[in-house]
Design goal:
The complex is a heterotrimer of chains A (326), B (317) and C (260).
Chain A lengths: L3 E13 L4 E13 L3 E5 L6 H9 L7 E10 L2 E2 L5 H7 L4 E4 L3 H4 L6 H12 L4 H14 L16 H13 L5 E5 L7 H18 L2 E6 L2 H7 L2 E6 L2 E7 H6 L4 H8 L49 E4 L2 E3 L12
Parallel strand pairs in A: 3-8, 3-9, 6-7, 7-8
Antiparallel strand pairs in A: 1-2, 1-4, 4-5, 9-10, 10-12, 11-12
Helix pairs in contact in A: 4-5, 4-6, 5-6, 6-7
Chain B lengths: L2 E14 L2 E14 L3 E5 L6 H8 L7 E6 L2 E2 L5 H8 L2 E4 L13 H11 L6 H14 L16 H13 L5 E5 L7 H18 L2 E6 L2 H7 L2 E6 L2 E7 H6 L4 H8 L40 H5 L5 E4 L2 E3 L8
Parallel strand pairs in B: 3-8, 3-9, 6-7, 7-8
Antiparallel strand pairs in B: 1-2, 1-4, 4-5, 9-10, 10-12, 11-12
Chain C lengths: L1 H14 L1 H4 L31 H36 L1 H16 L2 H12 L3 H11 L1 H16 L2 H8 L4 H37 L11 H7 L9 H27 L6
The chains are: A alpha/beta (326), B alpha/beta (317), C mainly alpha (260).
Chain lengths: 326, 317, 260
């Protein structure tokens, strides 16, 4: 149950442009267990997509650069293996689905062919076997297999995203990275797609890293959550811990910013200020300029990971020295 | 309660090479002074088109619009320009709704220039500064360009521009959808404050039901150009009559655990709004559809006090 | 910046021509004909013994004038037509079909026809060259305006009561300039070349008036033995086009607030 599929250790990613150095990901460590869905939550600029790209070794370089860290997958450090070996893993063992289904599919190829492409790249079988598998995948994501010769523009947004998911799961990957897979979709379609992803996860034994800014989506499908802010993971734990026992002031502020359907609120409790400029991060705790509980120490000391409950870690000086008794 | 805006049987059709696209097909509602009406629906329902037709940014195909008792359906030219002073819009995308080559102060001051609202440069500068202050923009961004600001601040620029001429009525087209959650809350608070201080009447167009519940007094639900349910916010969240509304509300994902709801999953996809025939637009996807639904278009009827639905077989959930 | 300096240098040369040119442009001296660049004649002499340097300096006046003014005229008319076609869609078909009509005639033939009809002389030359290149500007402007017209900030401008004229001047044109600037800077070199063709045919600039293009074509027959007569004006032309290209890129970037 707790067998690890992916382990990220102290990852640092930076973008070096002519004008500035953008610290996109600052020293994050994360573990994904088998058959688990990990929600990676954060707002624009938090570094979630960069983390996903780093796992896939797709960080655009230049200007991006993985400065240090290790990413262990099936015993090997992904950052150190050759490009040839990495290509075998991409699409085969680790798949990624991107946010915008409108641009993720090639408009001049029929959808069936796009699914077949990934199957033939990674499985050694014959064309007939690949075709059978393609048909099976289409049915699995709820698309009539007779539509395999149709082009992406003939499908709606929700259907396109299903095709994208079919491509991602075609080779039965151990890990699926989904970058905001339902953000561009309507609410009712989102419900459909998330339901489908849940059932597919069980069928394929796939672990999922679900990148999102929507806490509702996290509540629906995730087992664990990691909250990112300014390139760091500031809180992580099981979904129950994070939702019912949140500790970091940013996490608390994030939940408070969302209007509650069950209560009447006059004003929302917004977090004041803005996300810091990643090229010019504040000293000490990166959240201190916006934190309602900021102390003098927060301004110059970087908080370390504190375990406040089993598997629940927070990076906040407020909880320094309050480790839960093991 | 006096009525500020009344819309009667509003229609907007677009000619396409495949046929006539019924973007808005016979929408009627009225809005009282000082209140906010939420218009919700998913993509393709026509809510954005409706907002633009009311403001005469698109020419309507049929129906009437009455503002403060006056028929403004066919206003043009100078009369339309005068009306624009009191009816303004806040746009969805803060990245494309402000000119990237103009400074913040020119963007905010443009409406003042258009109407020669200021006697001299001193008054103009003072008014621009005051507007920036009202929406929470620091003075130092006065000469900044849009690309130097983040989404939240750009949206504040858009809001300042919209309230520059002290309008009575605002159409807000998904004003916070493109913003991060923590910024959304800031902007929603700002908009609420402005509405209270200036007694604005608003139409709030969105697909986000949590947001619409927070800001609106009444809600209209649209589907494929037709108004399918209409009632007060409190009532709508407590009780829905139309199957689509029920599905929509059940699909909301709340950031809470143990919300084991029976999610109503609507089958199928949106049907085409081109060359629409008779019958309920939602029938192809409705779990309860029968022949009458497919052949006769349902009218918007009052099912319970002040709660309307366009369904042949409204059922309460 | 390099482009700007080079252009300014050339303009100064053109203005100060009588002061800096060592000889008169039509000072013929048959004994000293066909000389390669030497101490007496820095750029050598042509087939009539005229100093090429002086002819280059005086010629810069003509070439720059023709290049800049004809492009200016062409851009002004072309852009206006493009804006009208894109903004007032009812006129689109009419305007663009007329433009297409002009565009269907190879621009060189068109220039020749117009110059022949109007007669010789530098003004008619500029008019002929200007008219023949209008279609390109009309097309480029129309495409750019069509795109910008559909943006949300233009819609927003209408919603705050901005009239059409202000929308075009304040919102549409500044955001459509980039492709027009590029077209214009490339166009100057083109214009000079068209002018030279016309001069070669006896339309436009009459000899002995110096003009780079004419010098280029005049030296053609001697290119094997006296290549300096062709190469020098050629290099000058190349430098001008290069300078204007760089200037155009720089101008486009300078006008874009996103790059500040």
């Amino acid at each position: 149950m707790h067998e690890k599929v992916l382990e990220i250790k102290k990852l640092v990613v930076r973008y070096d442009t002519d004008y500035e150095k953008v610290e996109a990901v600052n020293n994050i460590s994360l573990e994904i267990a088998k058959k688990e869905t990990m929600g990676l939550v954060g707002e624009t600029g938090a570094g979630k997509t960069t983390t996903a790209l780093a796992i896939m070794r797709l960080v655009p370089s230049p200007p991006g650069k993985v400065i240090s860290g290790e990413i262990y997958f099936e015993g090997a450090d992904l950052l150190k293996i050759s490009e040839k070996e990495m290509r075998k893993i991409r699409g085969g063992k680790i798949s990624m689905i991107f946010q915008d289904p409108m641009t993720a599919l090639n408009p001049v190829l029929p959808v069936g062919e796009q699914i077949m492409e990934v199957i033939r790249l990674h499985d050694k079988g014959s064309k007939a076997e690949a075709t059978k598998k393609t048909t099976k995948m289409l049915e699995l994501v709820g698309i009539n297999s007779e539509r395999h010769n149709e082009y992406p523009h003939q499908f709606s947004g929700g259907m396109k995203q299903r095709v994208v998911i079919a491509i991602a799961l075609a080779c039965n990957p151990s890990l699926l990275i989904a970058d905001e897979p339902t953000t561009a979709l309507d609410v009712t379609i989102q419900a459909q797609v998330l339901g489908m992803m849940n059932s597919l996860k069980d069928e394929f034994d796939t672990s999922i890293i679900l990148i999102t800014h929507d806490l509702g989506v996290v509540a629906e499908v995730c087992d664990h959550v990691a909250i990112m802010y300014a390139g760091e993971i500031i809180e992580t734990g099981t979904i129950k811990e994070i939702f019912e026992n949140k500790k970091h002031p940013y996490t608390i502020g994030l939940f408070n910013s969302i209007p509650d359907l069950d209560t009447e609120e006059d004003r929302l409790q917004a977090i004041s200020g803005l996300m810091p400029d990643p090229a010019n991060l504040p000293k000490g705790c990166k959240f201190h300029p916006r934190c309602p509980k900021c102390t003098a120490e927060c301004k110059h000391r970087v908080p370390q990971n504190t375990e406040v409950a089993p598997e629940h870690f927070v990076k906040c000086l407020l909880y320094k020295g309050t480790e839960a008794a093991k | 309660m006096s009525v500020l805006l009344e819309v009667r049987d509003l229609k907007k059709y677009f000619k396409t090479h495949r046929g006539l696209l019924h973007a808005v097909d016979g929408v009627s509602f009225s809005l009282d002074k000082g209140k906010t009406l939420g218009i919700v629906g998913e993509s393709g329902c026509g809510k954005s088109t409706l907002g633009r037709v009311i403001l005469h940014l698109l020419e309507l195909t049929g129906g009437e619009i009455l503002f403060d008792g006056q028929d403004i359906t066919n206003v043009k030219g100078r009369e339309l320009k005068e009306h624009r002073k009191i009816m303004q819009m806040i746009f969805q995308d803060p990245f494309s709704s402000i000119n990237p080559r103009m400074t913040v102060s020119s963007i905010i001051g443009e409406p003042l220039k258009n109407y020669n609202a200021c006697k001299d440069k001193r008054e103009y500068d003072a008014r621009v500064k005051s507007l920036m202050d009202t929406v929470g923009l620091a003075e130092r961004v006065e000469q900044s360009y849009p690309h130097e600001l983040d989404g939240g601040r750009r949206q504040r620029v858009g809001i300042a521009r919209a309230i520059a001429l002290n309008p009575k009525f605002l159409v807000c087209d998904e004003p916070v959808s493109a913003l991060d959650v923590s910024i959304q809350a800031q902007i929603l608070n700002l908009m609420q404050d402005l509405q209270k201080e200036r007694g604005l009447t608003c139409i709030f167009i969105t697909h986000n039901l949590s947001v619409v519940k927070h800001v609106s007094n009444d809600i209209c639900v649209m589907y494929l150009g037709v108004l399918i349910e209409k009632s007060s916010t409190k009532e709508l969240f407590a009780k829905q009559y139309h199957p689509y509304t029920q599905a929509l509300l059940s699909a909301i994902l709340q950031p809470k655990l143990n919300k084991t709801k029976n999610r109503i999953i609507i089958k199928g996809e949106l049907t085409s709004p081109i060359n629409v025939g008779p019958g309920c637009r939602f029938a192809p996807r409705c779990l309860y559809a029968c022949d009458e639904c497919r052949n006769t278009t349902p009218e918007l009827k009052e099912i319970s006090p002040n709660h309307f639905a366009a369904c042949h077989f409204p059922r309460c959930e | 910046m390099v482009g700007l300096y080079l252009l300014v240098f050339l303009i100064l040369v053109a203005i100060c021509a009588p002061i800096i040119a060592p000889y008169d442009y039509d000072d013929q001296n048959q004994e000293k004909a066909f000389k390669f660049p030497n101490r007496e004649f820095w750029f050598g002499t042509d087939n009539f013994g005229r100093d090429i340097l002086s002819r280059m300096i005086y010629g810069s006046r003509v070439s720059l004038q023709v290049g800049l003014i004809s492009v200016g005229f062409s851009a002004l008319v072309g852009c206006t037509l493009g804006v009208i076609a894109a903004f007032y869609r009812k006129c689109d078909n009419l305007v663009m079909r007329v433009v297409d009509g002009f565009a269907s005639i190879p621009y060189l033939l068109l220039a020749i026809a117009i110059a022949a009809a109007l007669g010789s002389g530098i003004n008619n030359l500029m008019l002929a060259v200007g008219i023949s290149t209008i279609p390109a500007y009309a097309r480029v402007t129309r495409a750019a305006v069509l795109t910008v017209k559909e943006t949300e900030y233009v819609e927003a401008a209408r919603s705050i009561g901005t009239n059409n004229f202000r929308i075009i001047i304040r919102h549409i044109m500044p955001n459509s300039l980039a492709p027009i600037i590029i077209q214009a800077t490339l166009g100057v070199g083109n214009a000079i070349l068209i002018a030279s063709c016309l001069s070669f045919l006896g339309l436009g600039i009459q000899p002995p008036s110096p003009e780079w293009g004419a010098m280029l074509s005049g030296g053609r027959i001697y290119i094997r033995d006296y290549w300096h007569m062709t190469v020098i004006p050629g290099v000058a032309l190349m430098l001008v086009v290069y300078a204007l290209n760089i200037l155009g890129d720089g101008l486009r970037d300078a006008l874009d607030p996103r790059l500040k």
